[in-house]
Design brief:
heterodimer, A: 370 residues, alpha+beta, Rossmann fold, OB fold (Dihydrolipoamide Acetyltransferase, E2P), 2 domains, 6-stranded mixed sheet, 5-stranded antiparallel sheet, 23% helix, globular, B: 548 residues, mainly alpha, MetI-like fold, two-stranded antiparallel ribbon, two-stranded antiparallel sheet, 24 helices, 74% helix
Chain lengths: 370, 548
């Protein structure tokens, strides 16, 4: 949100539900009491595994689906029953949905022609937008002649040229190869920041979500399970599902030994681990789950020092900038990561090492919080 | 492999190339000298020239009307979210004209709109109404052939990614504008294809104009028939049928080499599981469905009328119920029924086999002249039946190969005229099946014979059954080519129906038609059962093969 767009609007998704008939399971909820608020100019991402209801929610915001319950509001105005063609939205599909019978120029001009703009104005605005997405000179090409990245840019240009109130993306990068995906997501993010159009973006790729979003709403089984910035979700997951879905994680069983001023000592891994964030309402003796990110585990080769736990390296994978280890510690298998500064320094399999946890790197969840 | 290729080439030479060459020769060679007499005579005859233009006019209008009807049905079926049973009902009503003998709608038209027609005479009280002419022929042909357009267009419309329409809608376009600017343009190649198919079908149609066109509206196929059977002028008939060749050829080439390349590829990774949004407004949906229901009702009414006519003494005069007509066809007509079944019984397996073998050889084995073999095999299929019939009549009437009067000539005609459906189905199926499947089998140690038996054959079984079905159906219902090939010894039900109509014994004609429809439906059902029995995955539905 680097630029302020005075006309950017606020989107409310207010307790929206949508049911579908399912061939095997009968009636299923694609979305169940979904509540979201997207602030003006904000980039909000719906993140979740396939079938979690994120696309259905997006399509309801677009007007391609009608909710069975709940309301959707644009700047306070109830648009739940407004047809898609009156909502003034820009939608980017996973498969781009370019009109195959129209050249690039006409694809982008489509929404302007619908709005009855004069020829000169259309030419000016299409030219501007094509330049913005780096496709000046492609006006007469057909979608079949474009690469995946270029098709993606046309789809983007077509969505923004109408100056929509809301930009909606449905997994726009999943048909691109890995390198292009990283480049395009940066371009989308930059463009969105510059235009400051309120944006809802759907993806199942947590890295992509973290890279582009102001805020992320994680969805599972039709519900929003946690909302927050990428850092919130990563470091303070509210559930095991979020912890496991966003990034890689070690989940360890433990028991609270004592709590002093919000800092707890927890029995885990046959030893004692200190954690700063104890869930409110916890009591001494409660069973808990410790959430430790692989990079928060410090692996030390000289295993002196009193705070280290003894562990054994089982296997490792050299990935260039880092090496991933699988380590056994008190019958638990842990994932750990060490960054490589140069040749050598890789711990051989079978070596006994010491483990150390940073205090604020450990999140504690109640045992039952799945 | 080489042996079967040679055998196929020999068969194609005898039953496709040779008759056509003889037809041409008969036209331009007279007593050993080249002459343009026959063609010149036809071209100078104003009556025949009119027949030529009439044929083109009829074919064009049938093409437009039939394509519109087909589009209406296809659009309703793929975009109106119809419940399953309703879709099945539409498919069944639409299938009826495709599996009927050629005169059924024509007879029903006469029953309804003829001089003593149920609608014109009994209902409206019009006396002396002439049913014969352009309008009736057009209506009858449009109703008979629009299912081809429906079957061609339905997959085209269904394949359009509904996200494209959703996109247009989200850009602010109204539903009507979405239809006009995205759906319709994306259908244009399909529409062109449907039009060409209907044009060709109408151009070649012999039965309907023979019954309904009357003297006021002569068309080429019937003129050629009358020239030969009425005036015994084989050369003139040949020249007339030859005039059909040019437009038929143009249409075939356009369809095969121009339209087929213009399909917009809308293959997408997603979309398939996506529920389409409501692309049709409720009011428009109701209108569409009402129009479809009306047309389906007309078809059902025609067939109900046919059934009724076969069960009363004389429709329009005496409505007392009787089984007399069925008694007639199973006594006087028994020979025709038996002959037809024997001929169809031989043509079906041979035609099915021919289609699969040729299709397999040209796609999977590098045989000499594979591509041209496929092209040659399509000739009899693409040509109007009248031309093929006259060519066979000329070619096999004199040495070296005298087949006139035998069942073999009719069977051969069916195999080489309708077997190509099986060829196309086989080629299409094999192109979808990755060669790596066969390579995987060989990699696991199977020889090429085992591979063919265990892998390839089960995969192309649907095409074999499709070939069987089409050859059988056409053997039961075709007339345009075989009318020239029947004899005292071997005759056909369709020819018998024609005789009945010309003798104005419409009751037996109706009974025969009902019988054919029943037999064909039973056989289609049996083939469907066999397909399921063999668990043929990815089987092409039978109906989709009747279109081409």
């Amino acid at each position: 949100m680097t630029t302020v767009n005075p006309s950017a609007i606020r989107v409310h998704v207010d307790g929206v539900s949508k049911r579908f008939a399912h061939r095997v399971k009968g009636e299923i909820y694609a979305a169940r009491d979904v509540r979201l608020e997207v602030r003006p100019g904000e980039f909000l991402t719906l993140l979740g595994p396939s079938g979690c209801g994120k696309t259905t929610t997006l399509r309801m915001i677009a007007g391609f689906e009608t909710p069975d319950a709940g309301r959707i509001r644009f700047d306070g105005q109830d648009i739940t029953d407004m047809p898609a063609n009156q909502r003034n939205i820009g939608f980017v599909f996973q498969n781009y949905a370019l009109f195959p019978h129209l050249p690039v120029f006409e694809n982008v001009a489509y929404g302007l022609r619908v709005r009855g703009l004069a020829g000169a104005a259309i030419e000016e605005r299409v030219g501007e937008v094509l330049a913005l997405v780096g496709l000046a000179g492609y006006e007469h090409q057909f979608s079949g002649q474009l690469s995946g990245g270029e098709q993606q840019r046309v789809a983007l240009a077509r969505a923004i040229v109408i100056r929509p109130r809301v930009l909606l993306f449905d997994e726009p990068l999943s048909n691109l190869d890995a390198k292009l995906r990283v480049q395009m997501r940066q371009e989308i993010r930059d463009l969105q920041s510059r235009l400051a159009i309120t944006t809802v973006y759907v993806t199942h790729d947590q890295e992509e979500a973290m890279a582009v979003s102001d805020r992320i709403a994680v969805m599972n089984q039709g519900r929003v399970v946690q909302e927050g910035t990428a850092q919130d979700l990563y470091h303070r997951p509210a559930s095991q599902f979020v912890a496991q879905f966003v990034g890689r994680v070690n989940l360890l069983p433990g028991r609270i030994l004592d709590i002093v001023d919000g800092t707890g000592r927890i029995a885990a891994l046959g030893s004692m681990i200190v954690a700063r964030s104890i869930p409110p309402g916890s009591a001494v003796g409660d069973a808990v789950r410790l959430i430790v990110r692989p990079e928060a585990i410090e692996v030390v080769r000289d295993r002196g020092g009193s705070e280290t736990l003894l562990a054994t390296v089982l296997s490792h994978a050299f990935l260039g900038e880092k090496t991933e280890y699988v380590i056994r510690c008190a019958d638990e298998l842990l994932q750990a990561v060490r960054y490589n500064a140069g040749m050598g320094g890789i711990i051989p399999d079978g070596e006994t090492v010491g483990l150390r946890f940073a205090d604020d790197a450990v999140t504690v969840l109640p045992e039952h919080a799945s | 492999m080489t042996f079967s290729a040679l055998a196929l080439w020999a068969l194609l030479a005898i039953f496709v190339v040779y008759p056509l060459a003889m037809l041409l020769a008969r036209m331009v060679v007279d007593h050993g000298a080249l002459t343009t007499g026959a063609i010149a005579k036809v071209l100078s005859d104003r009556h025949q020239i009119r027949a030529f233009w009439n044929s083109l006019l009829l074919a064009s209008v049938v093409g437009v009307v039939g394509t519109s009807l087909g589009f209406l049905f296809a659009f309703a079926a793929s975009r109106c979210r119809l419940p399953r049973p309703l879709l099945t009902a539409i498919d069944a009503a639409v299938l009826l004209p495709l599996v009927s003998p050629p005169f059924t709608t024509a007879i029903a038209m006469i029953f309804s709109f003829g001089p003593r027609g149920l609608i014109t005479y009994d209902l409206l009280g019009i006396k002396g109404y002439t049913v014969y002419g352009f309008t009736s022929t057009l209506l009858s042909e449009a109703l008979t052939y629009f299912p081809i357009a429906y079957l061609t267009l339905r997959p085209v419309i269904s394949a359009i990614d509904s996200n494209i329409e959703a996109m247009a809608l989200s850009l602010g376009a109204s539903r009507w504008r979405v239809f006009r600017t995205t759906t319709l343009p994306l259908c244009i190649p399909g529409l062109a294809n449907a039009f060409l198919l209907l044009f060709a079908a109408s151009l070649a149609d012999f039965a309907t104009p023979l019954i309904l066109a009357g003297n006021s509206f002569p068309v080429l196929p019937t003129q050629a028939f009358l020239q030969i059977t009425g005036l015994f002028d084989l050369r003139g008939g040949a020249a007339l049928s030859f005039m059909l060749l040019l437009p038929a050829l143009i249409v075939f080439l356009l369809q095969r080499y121009w339209v087929s390349r213009r399909y917009y590829v809308t293959v997408t990774g997603k979309g398939a599981g996506q529920t389409p949004f409501d692309s049709v407004a409720p009011g428009a949906r109701a209108t569409l469905l009402a129009a479809c229901a009306l047309i389906a009702l007309v078809i059902v009414y025609f067939y109900a009328l046919l059934l009724y006519a076969s069960l009363v003494v004389a429709l329009g005069a005496n409505h007392a119920p009787t089984l007399q007509h069925y008694r007639t066809i199973f006594t006087d007509g028994l020979k025709a029924i038996r002959d037809t079944l024997i001929i169809a019984g031989f043509a079906m397996p041979l035609g099915g086999l021919y289609g699969v073998v040729l299709g397999y050889l040209v796609t999977r084995k590098r045989i000499p002249g594979g591509r041209s073999m496929e092209a040659v095999s399509m000739i009899n299929y693409a040509l109007p039946g009248t031309i093929v019939g006259i060519a066979y009549l000329i070619a096999f009437n004199e040495p070296p190969l005298v087949l006139t009067g035998t069942a073999l000539i009719i069977i051969a005609c069916y195999i080489f005229r309708y077997g190509p459906t099986g060829i196309r189905a086989t080629v299409a199926l094999l192109q979808q099946i990755d060669k790596s499947l066969e390579e995987a089998s060989q990699g696991l140690g199977a020889g090429s014979a085992t591979t063919f038996r265990r892998v390839t054959l089960p995969l192309i079984l649907p095409a074999f059954f499709a070939g069987l079905g089409v050859v059988f159906i056409r053997s039961m219902t075709a007339i345009s080519a075989t009318i020239f090939l029947v004899s005292i010894s071997w005759t056909l039900i369709t020819v018998k129906i024609l005789e009945n109509i010309t003798e104005l014994s419409l009751g037996p004609a109706a009974a025969f038609s009902v019988l054919v429809v029943v037999i064909v439906f039973v056989v289609i059902a049996l083939i469907g059962l066999a397909l399921r029995r063999f668990r043929a995955v990815g089987a092409v539905p039978m109906t989709s093969l009747l279109g081409g």
